[in-house]
Amino acid sequence: SPRCKNALILSKDERVIIFSGTIVLIMQKMIRTLAELETEATNFVGALAPSVQGATLVTLSGELGAGKTAFTKAVANVLGVEETVTSPTFVLEKIYLLPGGHLFKRLIHIDAYRLEKGSDLSPLGFDEFMQDTSNLILLEWPEKVAEMLPVPMARLSLVALSDGSHTISYD
Asked: Please, are residues 37 and 68 in contact by the beta-carbon 8 Å criterion?
């Protein structure tokens, strides 16, 4: 497999790449089962901390069927969402109120697949959502609206593999 000569393997799931003196940690996880997805979502949620400057934004990139919505469902489950979580492709966004005891009050799931430009987020109330530190926003297809997005707390890239497993890369 191709290797970057500046990559240092920390474990089978992590690598550090140094670009122009800047250290970048890239972590990649292989997900083979729904139980592994739930475990990964639990670990992910456990590592989240609300931003003091506004909402906590997480972007989810990947082709159709890569597992973006499946990951969001798993995160919602970890956060105690009891209603059925489905892709907001046609309604564009779904807002889930979270039960007490969590760091966040709302999980906002946005699917930007059908949007043409960043300004299309405004009618959805995106700017207002971003002002509230109690919001966790998971946004699918960030490349469709990139010019409007602040720097996310985490960028996740998902890939579906031919054997039915998936990879999740964090940066």
From this structure: no
Candidates 35, 2, 47; CA nearest to 170 is 47
Kindly report the length of the chain. Answer: 171
Angstrom distance (rounded) from CA 87 to CA 114: 12
pLDDT digits (tens, 9 = 90+) for 112-156: 999 999 999 999 999 999 999 999 999 999 999 999 999 999 999
**84: Cα separation from own chain's centroid:** 19
Q: In what order do the strands lie in the sheet with 106-111?
A: 7-11, 14-19, 22-31, 166-170, 154-160, 56-61, 135-140, 106-111, 93-97
Side-chain half-sphere of 149: how many Cα atoms within 13 Å?
Answer: 23
Q: How far is CA 32 from CA 12, 56, 162, 163, 167, in A?
A: 15, 28, 12, 9, 9
Least Cα distance to 17 among 26, 125, 120, 95 occurs for 26
Question: pTM for the full model?
Answer: 0.82
